[in-house]
Design goal:
Layout (H helix, E strand, L loop, with lengths): L1 H7 L5 H8 L3 E3 L2 E3 L3 E3 L8 H10 L5 E7 L24 E6 L3 H13 L4 E6 L4 H4 L11 H14 L4 E8 L5 H13 L3 E8 L10 H10 L4 E4 L5 H11 L3 E4 L1 H5 L3 H6 L8 H16 L2 H16 L5 H8 L5 H12 L16
Parallel strand pairs: 3-10, 4-5, 5-6, 6-7, 7-8, 8-9, 9-10
Antiparallel strand pairs: 1-2
């Protein structure tokens, strides 16, 4: 930890940030060569989006969308909308699962390891009502002992890296995430993704980055900081202020899938990137899903992507008016050529 602290204090520029992010990081029995990762998300980290991000490269790990632990043991990747992958991405992709019972999560983890994913991610962070009503996601932070039992059961079931994504809890208690982080590490977690907001707070307040520092300094395993990382200066500040050993990018990666290449490989996007990326997203969705579901998934992607534009609401409204994928592609070409005016930072009011 001392050497990490010394290094983090030298990160002052985008070039410094890139050098830091490209330092190897041990996670359990594996090592990644890049500390900037796609965050575990619901409804957005599907196979088509991961392939889009892969086209730009620059990331350390990708995470799947939320897979039901009950379904995973018997899920058919050939027809599943969530539990599906390309063989070439397995060695850098972590499968994210949600569930309420230790044995259910352990069974799912065994299937995930058998499929040769990089690791398994346990979701204790999702605060969506439909998930919490089932006793899953962030609801498990109301029953800490059960959450810890789940980590322990999964750890005993698999040898691949075990990740835990969690948040501050249900109350603004700064000691709670520290206590949980230590317990997760003791139960066998290899890395943590920490989002420093309370579960009832649907991004109405800024994330408390100082809590990321509290969590990282309480454990010896890597902590990936998550929350409001929109530009390199935010990544620099998060690492300097918290000492976190990696950055987890969620909504901003949906808005700008090239963000990993931009931060770690000095990639400079051209104005034409917006139309090309939107069309690529549509093409990849059509390649993996039937037309109706592909359109549904694009409409989930569109608010984040359109947040880049000055007249974001008008562009979004016109774009998602499409009733099929062919019409959608026509709308994209009409709206994004020539490239519309963009904002320095996305309009986060469109970030659902």
């Amino acid at each position: 930890m001392n050497s990490e602290t010394t290094i983090e204090n030298t990160i002052n520029t985008a070039e410094d940030l890139a050098k830091y992010l490209l330092r190897p990081l041990a996670i359990g029995n594996r090592t990644i060569s890049n500390r900037m990762v796609l965050a575990p998300m619901a409804g957005l980290g599907h196979i088509a989006f991961r392939q889009l991000v892969t086209q730009f490269s620059g990331f350390g790990l990708l995470f799947t969308g939320m897979c039901s632990a009950k379904a995973v043991p018997h899920e058919n990747p050939g027809i599943s909308h969530v539990f599906s992958w390309r063989p070439e991405e397995l060695d850098h992709t972590v499968c994210q699962i949600f569930g309420a019972e230790p044995e259910t999560m352990a069974r799912a983890a065994r299937r995930i390891e058998a499929e040769k994913f990089f690791g398994v991610d346990l979701n204790f962070g999702c605060s969506v009502a439909a998930i919490c009503k089932k006793g899953c996601g962030a609801a498990l932070l109301k029953t800490p002992d059960k959450a810890i039992d789940i980590v322990s059961a999964v750890r005993k079931a698999v040898s691949c890296p075990v990740f835990v994504k969690f948040r501050t809890g249900w109350q603004d208690d700064h000691s709670f995430p520290v206590t949980m982080a230590r317990a997760f590490e003791s139960a066998g977690a290899d890395a943590l993704t920490f989002h420093p907001r309370v579960a009832p707070d649907r991004r109405s307040r800024r994330p408390r980055w100082e809590l990321i520092g509290n969590v990282q300094h309480a454990v010896t395993i890597p902590v990936f900081g998550n929350g409001n990382l929109f530009a390199p200066e935010h990544g620099i500040r998060m690492i300097r202020e918290t000492g976190c050993q990696g950055l987890s990018i969620g909504r901003m990666a949906v808005a700008q899938p090239w963000i990993f290449a931009q931060w770690t490989k000095n990639f400079t996007p051209e104005p034409s990137i917006y139309m090309k990326t939107a069309l690529d997203m549509a093409r990849l969705l059509s390649a993996h899903y039937e037309d109706r579901f592909a359109l549904k998934m694009f409409k989930k992607f569109a608010p984040y992507f359109c947040a880049n534009f000055k007249f974001s609401n008008a562009i979004l409204k016109s774009m998602i008016r499409a009733e099929n994928m062919n019409e959608l592609c026509d709308n994209i070409r009409h709206l994004l050529a020539p490239p519309p005016q963009t904002l320095r930072l996305p309009n986060i009011n469109l970030f659902i």
